[in-house]
Amino acid sequence: MSTATRSHELPFAASSAWPMVCALPVVVIGAWIGAGTSKSPALIIAAAILSVIAFVCLFGFFVVTPNHSKLLVLFGSYRGTVRTPGFYWTNPFTQKTTVSLRAHNVASEKIKVNDLLGNPIEIGAVIVWRVRDTAQARFDVEDHEKYVDVQVETAIREIAKGHPYDDGQSDKNEISLRGDTSAVIEELKVELQARLDRAGIEVLEARISHLAYAPEIASAMLQRQQAVAIIAARQKIVEGAVSIVEQALTDLGKHNVVHLDDERKATLVGNLLVVLCGNSSPQPVINTGGLYH
After folding, report:
1. DSSP code of 289?
2. What is the CA radius of gyration of the chain?
3. Which residue, of 75, 76, 120, 240, has the greatest Cβ tally within 10 A?
4. Residue 165 — φ and ψ, nearest 5°?
5. Angle CA 258–262–264, to nearest 5
6. Which residues lie closer than 8 Å to 190 by C-beta, 6 or more apart?
7. Taking the mean position of all CA atoms in its chain, how far away is CA 167?
8. 65-102, pLDDT tens digit by residue?
């Protein structure tokens, strides 16, 4: 299948409109004065023809405002684009189309999609874009603004299904949607730019505006996240407690505070770990006997 040739923007040096503004009234008024003075039928017809021509020439005036452009087409042929703000005149039969060069925001709806592991999630994004090539935006796609809306949703779906929602949900070191936001945003921007190049659109910025589990699994996934957080906290507590117990045994032996055999060391280690890893404050117990009595 053959690929359609892409359009390219051409700069157009439009003529200033002020000479025509001055010339048209002078020509028309002069023609009618001459016709009225001589009262010649030929001059009257000529003055009428000049008036009609002057009226048609009025359609050649156009204004380019800041951050806008005028795309000019004459009899089906693309002549170029005027980007410089000003007051211009061109062939009155030229079709003049305004194309905005300002930055546009697209806030996507909350899209429901499955992530890499098949979990249903809701995701939304905000995209900032502007027209880079007016010819491509006008001629290569039907409606470049609607084209952007559709491609934004498609790109978000493509990115979301390629990553797990959270860290630690996959055996591989996958980039997660929640944990690696910067990497996901950059990937989304690259994916969007590749899709919008056909329409001459430049992606300026991309941001994730909404990210959450779908309502039907949100409660279960919240419990899972809480369990993972509790396990991680317990691991840190145990690591710290073991370090403290090891330091305590080392200091007791170094300073000859007390001599402990293996059984007493085991008892001391167990008691210290209970105290350090317990959720509640320890209750002191006075032991009047010994370990073996």
Report:
1. S
2. 39
3. 120
4. -70, -45
5. 55
6. none
7. 23
8. 999 999 999 998 999 999 999 999 999 999 999 999 99
**CB count, 10 Å around CB of 293?**
5
Burial class (CB in 10 A: 0-12, 13-18, 19+), 2: exposed
- Angstrom distance (rounded) from CA 101 to CA 130: 6
Q: Tell me the two tokens of residue 286.
A: 């006075």
Q: Are 113 and 41 in contact (CB under 8 A)?
A: no
In this structure, what DSSP letter does residue 118 have?
Answer: S
Query: Is residue 289 packed enough to be buried (19+ CB in 10 Å), middle (13-18) or exposed (0-12)?
Result: exposed
What is the Cα–Cα distance from 73 to 82, expressed in whole angstroms? 12
- As to burial, measured by CB atoms within 10 angstroms (0-12 exposed, 13-18 middle, 19+ buried), residue 260 is middle
pLDDT class of 11 with cuts at 50, 70, 90: very high
* Max CA separation in the chain (angstroms): 144
Model pTM? 0.68
Measured CA to CA, the distance from residue 214 to residue 228 in angstroms comes to 20
Please write the tens of the pLDDT for every residue from 41-62: 888 888 899 899 999 999 999 9
The SS3 call for residue 279 is: coil
Q: Which of 31, 27, 11 is nearest to 19 (CA)?
A: 27
Q: Are 74 and 94 in contact (CB under 8 A)?
A: yes
Instruction: Return the higher-pLDDT residue of 160 and 169.
Output: 160
Specify which residues 61 forms β-bridges with: 89
Tokens 């860290």 correspond to 167
Residues 6+ apart with CB under 8 A from 125: 107, 108, 152, 156, 188, 206, 207, 208, 209
Cα(195)–Cα(154) distance, rounded to whole angstroms? 9
